[in-house]
Amino acid sequence: MIDTSPDLRQQALRYGVKRVDAVLYTHTHADHLHGIDDLRAFNFIQWAPIPIYGDLKTIKHIRRMFDYIFDERRSEGGGKPVIETNVIDGPFEAAGVEVEPLKIFHGTMEILAYRIGGFAYLTDASKIPPETIEKIRGLDLVALDALRYKKHPTHMNFEQAVRAAGEIGAKHTILTHFSHAVEHEEATRMLPDSIEPAYDGMEIILEEK
Fold this sequence. Notes:
2 domains; 10 strands; alpha/beta; Metallo-beta-lactamase, Chain A; seven-stranded mixed sheet; 209 residues; three-stranded parallel sheet
C-alpha cells in the first residue's frame, strides 16, 4: 500500500482489501497519513506487525505524531497498530517486492515517489527532477499528480502533468489526486489516448517481466 489516507477503512471495506503486507509513505501530510490507525484491523487479520517505509523525516514525524503506537508503556483499551518503522535512503525490498524511492518536489518540500518494476507512482508533485525522469522514462505505467486545470503552487495542473507525461514517455499514464473541480468525463475528452484520469476502485494488472 502507498500511504494511509484518512478514509482507509471505507476504501478497504468498499474494495475488499483483505491484507496489507507493507506501507510505503510518500510524505506526512494528513491526507496521506492520518488513516494509519486503521492498520490495526489488518494486524488482527494477519497476526503480524506491518512494516512501514519512508525517509528519515517522514519516519521521525510518524513516530512523534502517533507516539502512542510506539510507546510500549501505553496500552489503551481497544488496541493499537503493531507497526515496524523502516528508514529508507535507496532501493529496498518490501514484502518480497523490489522498490526504488525517487525524489520529487511538493512545492519546496522534497517527498518520495516510488518505482516498482515497470510502474511508478508520483503523487503531490509540482516538480520532477531530471534524475527522476531518467529513472522512470519509458515505463509501462506511471501514475502522475494532476490536481486541477488552473495552476497550483504545490501540485502540477493538467497542462503540466501532460507535458511531464510526454517527457517521461510511459506506455500509459494515469492522472490522479484530483480536486473537486475535475469531472472525469470532461478530463477524459481532453487527454490524449495514452493518458487517462484515475477513478476510485480502478484496477490495473501489470505482467511481471
